[in-house]
Amino acid sequence: MPDTPITNSPIVSAYRAATPGSAARAERAARLFPSGITHDSRYIEPYGLYIDRASGPRKWDVDGNCYVDYFGGHGALLLGHCHPEVTAAVQAQIERGTHYGACHELEIAWAELVMRLIPSAERVRFTSSGTEATLMAVRLARAFSGKPKLIRFNHHFHGWHDHMTSGHASHFDGTATVGVLDAVAGNVLLCDQNDEAALARLLDQHDDIAAAIIEPTGANGGKLPIDPKFLHALRRLTAEQGVLLIFDEVVNGFRVSRGGAQAAYGIRPDLTTLAKILAGGLPGGAVAGRKDILDLLDFQVTKQAGAEKIAHPGTFNANPLSAAAGVAALTIVAETDACDRANRFGETLRRRLNEVFEEESVAWAAYGTFSSLEIFTNSERVAIEPTSFDPLQYPLTMLKGDRNAGLVHKMRLAMMLNGVDLSSHPGGVISATHGDAELEDTVAAMRQTVRMLRQEGEI
Ligand SMILES: Cc1ncc(COP(=O)(O)O)c(C=O)c1O
After folding, report:
1. 250 lines ligand 1 (CB under 6 A)
2. Of 123, 275, 367, 373, which sees the most CB atoms within 10 A?
């Protein structure tokens, strides 16, 4: 959200001139939805783009403008928009029924792929979203351990349910965000990522911790990167203290590698939450992990053990359309180099953008791991060398708390004017369909954007 006036900005005026169709729709939407939007990260002043169609790494708005897409379906589209095999699988399934209210073959094939790809998956339970998956993982951990508390890491995002709100974007003192009960927030212990000593202290001080949950490549899909050494320490310390470890691989799963971050880093969590790529661009999520924990969802096992079963209905769990897309997508992930291609593009894009920043003498840096892109816009104007920028050397508040919100906002609008849709980080996720043309278009758009911002006195 901008913190500087956006009137009289040539960039904003040009954006308005290029997108009258989006403006007209935004006016209608403002009468329907709070802020005119249906997902917080789609909020942008003066209004967001209205997209008409998409294909591979690109999308077109209602005014006919084309964009290289770095939203990637909020991370769901490793295979790009409308992958032909995923589309065909969904089309074939829609003719056969969208909901049977019964078991079906595709849910088995889908879970078999999850178990084949995710190293720690001994059992799977499908949900309808990542938020539902982390909610179920926390409930499983509390029920299994009989303990109430949950360790979370500041800034990490795990969906929007009540156990996950404090310490994400606000309330870093652990108090409840508006609408959440104090008793719920009070059972969450917040810790800084990459701070092994603080984590060890927390684990020593409390003997009633059920689990720790983490985004294994760092907060917000890697905006605040994790030192892999910390991940290994987290596994060691939680195991020593009998605390369950939940990897939230909603973004990382089937992206950073076929087996997610746990395969890339060689760490075995007790539970894993999945969504996004899991369902091939349709809605879906899952909890996977240790059989003895997921057994709490099992009618027979809990009965024999005299334990209380965790109830889990859910109208759209393992929905046939999501299963069809998921099976098609995960088969491609398993059998092709899709993850590697996206990762390679990420590495090249970050290097090329940093070369632009150096050539244009702007003290910004592109960083990220695997197929993520983050742009550091350096609100405190510290001296950096973009091509050798190491985000781990900078405090999280500097990386995340970008007080240059007005600059970031205009940068995103200018990138759109130059044919690239970056996410609000600012940055984005990369698909396996991003290729040479998208690379050159993005690099040229960034150079032009830097020049436009300089002309406007922003940098
Ligand atoms: C790491 C992580 N966990 C959980 C979620 C919530 O998933 P969903 O949006 O499917 O509810 C997200 C969503 O972006 C996420 O990035």
Report:
1. yes
2. 275
CA 130 to ligand 1 centroid distance, Å: 5
Q: Determine whether the shortest distance from the Cβ of 286 to ligand 1 is under 6 A.
A: no
pTM of the model: 0.97
**CA 385 to ligand 1 centroid distance, Å:** 33
Q: How far apart are CA 171 and CA 68, in angstroms?
A: 35
What is the Cβ-side half-sphere exposure of residue 114, based on CA atoms within 13 angstroms? 32
Mutate to test the pocket of ligand 1, among 40, 158, 224 (most ligand atoms within 8 A of CB): 158
Instruction: Return the residue whose CA atom lies nearest to atom 8 of ligand 1.
Output: 130
Q: From the CA of 215, give the closest atom in ligand 1.
A: 1
Contact between 452 and 414 under an 8 Å Cβ cutoff? The reply is: yes
State the Cα–Cα distance between residues 58 and 348, nearest whole angstrom: 19
Residue 248: which of 121, 372, 137 has the closest Cα? 137
Q: Which of 131, 272, 370 to mutate to test the pocket of ligand 1 (most atoms within 8 A of CB)?
A: 131
Strand order in the sheet with 209-214: 123-127, 285-289, 271-275, 244-248, 209-214, 149-153, 188-191
Q: Output the tens digit of pLDDT for each of the chain's 459 residues.
A: 444 456 689 999 999 999 999 999 999 999 999 999 999 999 999 999 999 999 999 999 999 999 999 999 999 999 999 999 999 999 999 999 999 999 999 999 999 999 999 999 999 999 999 999 999 999 999 999 999 999 999 999 999 999 999 999 999 999 999 999 999 999 999 999 999 999 999 999 999 999 999 999 999 888 899 999 999 999 999 999 999 999 999 999 999 999 999 999 999 999 999 999 999 999 999 999 999 999 999 999 999 999 999 999 999 999 999 999 999 999 999 999 999 999 999 999 999 999 999 999 999 999 999 999 999 999 888 999 999 999 999 988 888 866 567 899 999 999 999 999 999 889 999 999 999 999 999 999 999 999 999 999 998
Ligand 1 proximity of 133 Cβ (cutoff 6 Å): no
309 lines ligand 1 (CB under 6 A): no
Give the residue ranges of DSSP H helices in 267-422: 291-294, 299-305, 320-335, 338-359, 396-400, 405-417
C-alpha span between 288 and 269 (Å, rounded) = 10
Protein residue closest via CA to atom 5 of ligand 1:
159
Angle in degrees, 0-180, between the axes of helices 405-417 and 436-455, rounded to the nearest 10:
130
